[in-house]
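Input record, target 12 of the design panel.
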């Protein structure tokens, strides 16, 4: 800075006593201790406030963890129930397949039985017809039963 600027701005002059500088008073030990105690009291209050906030946060997190534990237990119970339901479903599925197999076997038995029953009836019907035809071949009409011819007697 130039000398003219320095005289115009007494604030920038560090050597002179300006409006930004105050005279330092001599502080007694008691005043110093009182100030330190005041600062310590304020800091203790701040630390206590932070400690209270941390304690509140921890209690909230503990409650949250308890809820998560309960949710976890519920989920485990639900998983066990689903597992049991799947096991029962597999048992039901096996039972349905077994019942279907029994029904199919019953249907096959009915069809085979109907076939053989029908076949036996067909054999009986064929034998009856053949017997009737054979019987018709063996029977001759007696001559006296023959109708007289329609020619006039002579």
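The sequence produced for target 12 reads:
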């Amino acid at each position: 800075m130039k000398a003219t600027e320095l005289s115009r701005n007494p604030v920038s002059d560090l050597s002179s006593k300006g409006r930004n500088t105050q005279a330092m008073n001599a502080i007694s030990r008691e005043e110093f201790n009182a100030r330190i105690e005041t600062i310590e009291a304020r800091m203790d209050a701040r630390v206590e406030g932070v400690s209270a906030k941390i304690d509140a946060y921890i209690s909230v997190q503990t409650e949250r963890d308890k809820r998560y534990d309960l949710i976890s237990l519920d989920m485990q119970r639900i998983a066990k129930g689903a597992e049991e339901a799947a096991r029962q479903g597999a048992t039901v599925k096996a039972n349905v397949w077994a019942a279907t197999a029994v029904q199919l076997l019953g249907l096959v038995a009915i069809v085979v039985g109907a076939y053989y029953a029908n076949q036996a009836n067909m054999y009986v019907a064929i034998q009856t017809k053949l017997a009737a035809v054979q019987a018709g071949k063996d029977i001759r009409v007696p001559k006296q039963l023959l109708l007289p011819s329609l020619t006039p007697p002579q």
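The chain has a mean pLDDT of 81.
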